[in-house]
Specification:
about 200 residues; Tetracycline Repressor, domain 2; about 75% helix
Length: about 200
């Protein structure tokens, strides 16, 4: 059983925030491939050994820091209406994708995820997985209300679209993702889901 870090392995809160800021700054400036523990430590004003006492390497450090941009703490929406729940969820995804810290590093990180199985697993477990899991209760409630069929493939497709359409539009097409676009996306999705 792994023991909780204690003593020197714990950074004071203000130092933890300095490290988090340094990781995001380094990711934005040099990318994951050129990020080093030494440069993060120097930027944060801590010794490199302090980082290694907390994380065995940069992959674990970056994964831990990225998890701070995960899902909100509040419960997923449950308005009693599938379309409204999906609107709230997709706006949350848009806000997440346009978060200044994430937007500046997402393209590089996603490229690295394709090359680095360990980082891909961490990204899936700490960011993508929890984001996907946030959609599932709304779809399960819609199934229970009889709004949509009970079909696991449908759940996966809707979950994919809620994340990929805003990402594609923002990152690949370089277009805005305003509420009007998101409302239309939800209308198309719900129209295809209803019996």
């Amino acid at each position: 059983m792994a023991r909780e870090p204690a003593g020197a392995a714990l950074l004071r809160p203000e130092l933890t925030e300095a490290v988090v800021d340094a990781v995001f700054a380094e990711l934005a400036e040099v990318g994951y491939g050129r990020l080093s523990m030494q440069k993060v430590a120097a930027r944060a004003g801590v010794g490199k050994s302090a980082l290694y006492r907390r994380w065995p390497g940069k992959q674990e450090m970056v994964s831990d820091v990225l998890s701070r941009l995960g899902v909100p703490d509040d419960p997923p929406p449950d308005t009693g209406d599938l379309a409204e729940d999906l609107r709230l969820l997709v706006r949350d995804v848009r806000d997440w994708l346009t978060h200044p810290r994430l937007r500046g590093i997402a393209p590089d990180l996603l490229a690295e995820v394709g090359r680095n199985p360990g980082l891909a697993a961490a990204f899936r477990d700490r960011l993508a997985g929890p984001r996907r899991d946030r959609v599932r209760p709304a779809l399960a409630a819609a199934v229970a209300r009889g709004e949509i069929a009970d079909d696991p493939t449908t759940v996966e497709v809707v979950t994919d679209v809620l994340g990929s359409a805003p990402y594609w539009r923002l990152t690949v097409a370089g277009e805005d993702v305003d509420d009007r676009y998101l409302d239309r996306l939800v209308d198309v999705l719900v129209g295809g889901l209803r019996p």
